[in-house]
Amino acid sequence: MQVTSVNYRPDGNLEVLVKAAQQGDRGAFEQLVGRTHKMLRKVALPLLPASQVEDALQETYVLMFQKLHYLKEPLAFRSWLSRIALSTCYDLLRKAKPSETLSDLRGEAVHPEEPLDVVAIRRALAKLKKKDRNILILREYLDASYEEIGDILDLSPGTVKSRLFYARKKLKAIVSQDEVLKGF
After folding, report:
1. Per the domain annotation, does 44 fall within a domain?
2. Which of 10, 47, 5, 43 is nearest to 23 (CA)?
3. Helix, strand, or coil here: 182?
4. Are 53 and 32 in contact (CB under 8 A)?
5. Rounded CA separation 106/110 (Å)
6. What was the pLDDT predicted at 175?
7. So what's the pLDDT on residue 142?
8. Exposure of 113 by Cβ count < 10 A (0-12 exposed, 13-18 middle, 19+ buried)?
9. Of 149, 168, 171, 176, which residue has the fewest beta carbons closer than 10 angstroms?
10. Which range marks the domain in which residue 50 is found?
11. Cβ(139)–Cβ(149) under 8 Å?
């Protein structure tokens, strides 16, 4: 089956691209990858060492390609993809060598090429529970709305606001106790 590429404006929404990609348009799929790459890096960077971020993105896009036809509501694409990315990052952390797990990043940087602030933030986030870490990443790194976060984490907007408040409070306490992080 020959599918022509959708004529898509870069400033338009993702819904048109999602529908076209679901119909087999490879050009639309490639545009989805291009439009979401930066967003997914923002999900992966606070969770993974720099050496694993691209692996996480590749795995996320493979899963996106395999499961895109299951997405019933194209408007929910961003939330759906963010959920896949978070899950992929945690899968990679579970499979990582013990010296590269998220909790081990509380010590020295595993990868010397990473900036100190990225390592310090990752170290602080590692001290939080997964639910707190996820909500902070989605809000502070992705700038997702309360409704989007609710869709991704299956929570009401009110619960999102409450959890975000307490997650910020916990992160602030961690930062104030950590000498390396006090400068940030």
Report:
1. yes
2. 5
3. helix
4. no
5. 10
6. 83
7. 87
8. exposed
9. 176
10. 14-183
11. yes
